[in-house]
Amino acid sequence: xxxxxxxxxxxxxxxxxxxxxxxxxxxxxxxxxxxxxxxxxxxxxxxxxxxxxxxxxxxxxxxxxxxxxxxxxxxxxxxxxxxxxxxxxxxxxxxxxxxxxxxxxxxxxxxxxxxxxxxxxxxxxxxxxxxxxxxxxxxxxxxxxxxxxxxxxxxxxxxxxxxxxxxxxxxxxxxxxxxxxxxxxxxxxxxxxxxxxxxxxxxxxxxxxxxxxxxxxxxxxxxxxxxxxxxxxxxxxxxxxxxxxxxxxxxxxxxxxxxxxxxxxxxxxxxxxxxxxxxxxxxxxxxxxxxxxxxxxxxxxxxxxxxxxxxxxxxxxxxxxxxxxxxxxxxxxxxxxxxxxxxxxxxxxxxxxxxxxxxxxxxxxxxxxxxxxxxxxxxxxxxxxxxxxxxxxxxxxxxxxxxxxxx
Length: 407
Hints:
- This protein has helices at about 90-95, 100-105, 120-130, 145-150, 160-165, 185-200, 215-230, 235-250, 295-310, 385-400, 400-405, and strands spanning about 1-5, 15-20, 30, 35-40, 45-50, 55-60, 65, 70-75, 205-210, 255-260, 260-265, 270-275, 275, 280, 285, 325, 345-350, 355-360, 365-375.
- With about 400 residues, it is α+β, with helices and mostly antiparallel strands.
- It has three domains: about 1-75, CATH 2.40.50.100; about 90-155, no CATH class; about 185-405, Chloramphenicol Acetyltransferase, CATH 3.30.559.
- The strands form five sheets. Strands 9, 12, 15, 16, 17, 18 and 19 form a seven-stranded mixed β-sheet that branches.
- Helix 8 (about 235-250) packs across helix 9.
- The longest helix has 18 residues, at about 215-230.
């Protein structure tokens, strides 16, 4: 008997997913609970697992958009993948292309694979009009691979076509090509949300700068002991996260959100950290960051960033934040206006650290400076609140002792 594997429910608001890739091939033997495919929703990527052991029979193709409950594949009973049976067309091609070689061999040493194109190679050769007998196979036992087919030369054109060839304009020097890729569900959702934020909020950005020398001196002095004790490095993000959580206590509207005709205030700080993942920008959430130490925040960042790189983040880990921090400085950004992470009302943008001349106590000195940008929804956050919040963050970062003393 066979068992149909269907798209499982992955969230209340998700009605369809995209089959991003098969981890197992059609005809492969799979074990129970073994990952067989990757499905991508508009919020996360997750694995589809085998519900029993057997032979995989794929139904959907990579790139297909499937509704929840749609059949993706089936699993037939059996312990090992059977050897692939040769297609009738391919057998005929071998018999016609190499009758002399087959007769000369006259033994069991001549295998089906010799001189036979793979399915992908056969399709390419057919499109080019190339006889498989004229192609040397470099695959196992002489099998013609896809790469062999791609490099095969098409037969000479007919005279009628050749006569018109001189009239064709010479192509321009250098290669000119285009590639089209279907937008992933994640990318489409990001695009839709960003446009909605621009259209539905009164977004404004205020700027300030922070002298990073106190934090850099603190890190330089204690980073080795910190890592030895806590097992993680002491980065800048934990300082910024801690500073934001303290500033939110003084200016709670920065962490509020609009829900219909109501403004919702939270007495906790769930900080979203923007992370660049292989398939796009994701924003995992550090829960209750206001009650964490610097070490706890660093550990949480390591775990969430690792899951983001491996596409292992769950929907729960990416929803429900009250404030977002994004660090464009890791890519060299000097200044930007970050876009709100809806339904949140504010986002803090960090940038690269550059040594610049600044005036300190009437003297011009060189200090490592960073520009900060706070984008906010002017519908519920006034200018006084946004500027005061950013100044508070600046004060805490330029005097890190305040983060420990809470003053």
